[in-house]
Design brief:
The structure holds two protein chains of two kinds. Chain A is mostly helical. In chain A, about 80% of the residues lie in helices and about 0% in strands. Chain A has one domain (about 15-195). The longest helix of chain A has about 40 residues, at about 105-145. Chain A is elongated, with a radius of gyration of 25 Å. Chain B is mainly α. Chain B has two domains: about 1-85, Rna Polymerase Sigma Factor, Chain: A, CATH 1.10.1740.10; about 100-165, Arc Repressor Mutant, subunit A. In chain B, about 70% of the residues lie in helices and about 0% in strands. Classes of the chains: A mainly alpha, B mainly alpha. Chains A and B meet through helix 1, helix 2, helix 3, helix 6 and helix 8 of A and helix 1, helix 2, helix 3, helix 4 and helix 5 of B.
Chain lengths: ~200, ~170
């Protein structure tokens, strides 16, 4: 059977009434279950967690609030959380533009790829920078303020400390690559393949 | 948008959609294999159509707007499921075969449907628009592919389907 023969049957079934009783008004009250909605939800959750964490830290240290509020580490932590929350909010807004699905299919795919690739790149850079800040802080903080918890670490040989940092950076590099692939990379590959099929 | 305007928009949207309900079902039948997945995709397309509805200014036809959103949702917006473990369930259509239609013809239709199911997402979109009797020009405005690329693809799809239905 050829495709043009199926066209006749297709036309016939197209004019038949539906057998399903779709409740359209009920459907539009549901939230989307698509990948864009999932990604938006993850950014929303990330922003919420990052805003709650400093509050939780403050509550934990409530008995010794004066010391916590004069700690460089505490304020660095608060600044980091707020920066991540703002960045998550920004990502949410950018990803939300992918909800505009009324453009041509190929253009929509290309836009999705560009948005996801930028998110992936910035995500990787952000996490790498966060680790570097953590390392610099660990090394520099004892010169600014005394932290008993860092005494043991600073008592170790610099070779061991910097070796551990190098190992941490290396393992982060590989785990980040894997995680980025799972979260973005595999979807980007699939979308790029679709665009290739359209050329 | 106030409540009255919102109600009016909902009413217009439902009326528009009722006219094209069967079309959305047909798109779902091309892209997913089980009844449950078809219902999920149908709902997702309706949600996306509703979200985009305030931007629908009538510059293009409602059909073009619907095809774009439905195909974008089906192609890129659908989370990849392990379709290979899902058995193909033919769509339950009312009087799919006329009384005079032979069982062999019906079987051939099903074989062709199953073969279409084996095509990739882009090829399925092209077949769908072909079956909907869309011109290459109309396909171009929906898919964003050039007319030349569409003609080449269409010819390859026909060959592929011939091979698959042999």
């Amino acid at each position: 059977m050829e495709l043009f023969e199926l066209k006749q049957q297709w036309k016939k079934t197209g004019s038949l009434p539906t057998t399903h009783n779709h409740n359209i008004m009920e459907m539009i009250r549901h939230n989307s279950n698509g990948p864009v909605a999932v990604l938006k939800q993850s950014y929303r959750r990330q922003a919420a967690i990052m805003l709650v964490l400093p509050i939780a830290m403050t509550l934990i240290n409530l008995s010794n609030i004066g010391s916590a509020l004069s700690s460089v580490l505490f304020w660095t932590y608060v600044a980091f959380c707020v920066a991540v929350a703002i960045y998550a909010g920004y990502n949410y807004r950018v990803v939300a533009t992918l909800d505009e699905t009324d453009s041509m299919v190929k253009q929509h795919l290309e836009k999705t790829i560009a948005v996801l690739e930028t998110r992936m790149r910035q995500n990787v850079t952000g996490v790498k920078i966060a680790l570097l800040i953590f390392i610099v802080l660990t090394e520099v903080l004892p010169y600014i303020q005394h932290f008993p918890t860092l005494d043991y670490w600073h008592g170790l040989s610099p070779f061991i400390r910097f070796g551990a940092y190098a190992l941490l950076i290396l393992s982060q590099h590989f785990s980040l690559r894997r995680m980025s692939y799972l979260k973005f990379g595999q979807h980007i590959e699939r979308l790029k393949e679709l665009v290739r099929q359209m050329e | 948008m106030n409540t009255v305007e919102n109600k009016e928009a909902e009413r217009q949207f439902e009326a528009h959609l009722r006219e094209h309900e069967r079309l959305i079902e047909k798109i779902c039948s091309i892209y997913v294999f089980t009844e449950a997945d078809r219902q999920d995709l149908f709902q997702e397309i309706v949600i996306q159509l509703w979200k985009a509805y305030p931007r629908f200014k009538g510059e293009s036809s409602f059909g073009t707007y619907l095809y774009r959103i439905a195909l974008n949702t089906a192609i890129a917006g659908l989370r990849k499921k392990k379709d290979f473990i899902r058995p193909y369930e033919p769509e339950k259509l009312p009087h799919q075969a006329d009384d005079n239609d032979s069982a062999i013809a019906e079987e051939q239709h099903q074989l062709l449907y199953r073969s279409i199911g084996k095509l990739n997402e882009v090829e399925k979109a092209i077949v769908l628009l072909y079956l909907e009797d869309k011109s290459y020009r109309e396909m171009e405005t929906i898919l964003g592919m050039t007319e030349g690329a569409l003609r080449v693809k269409m010819s390859r799809i026909k060959d592929k389907l011939r091979q698959l239905t042999k």
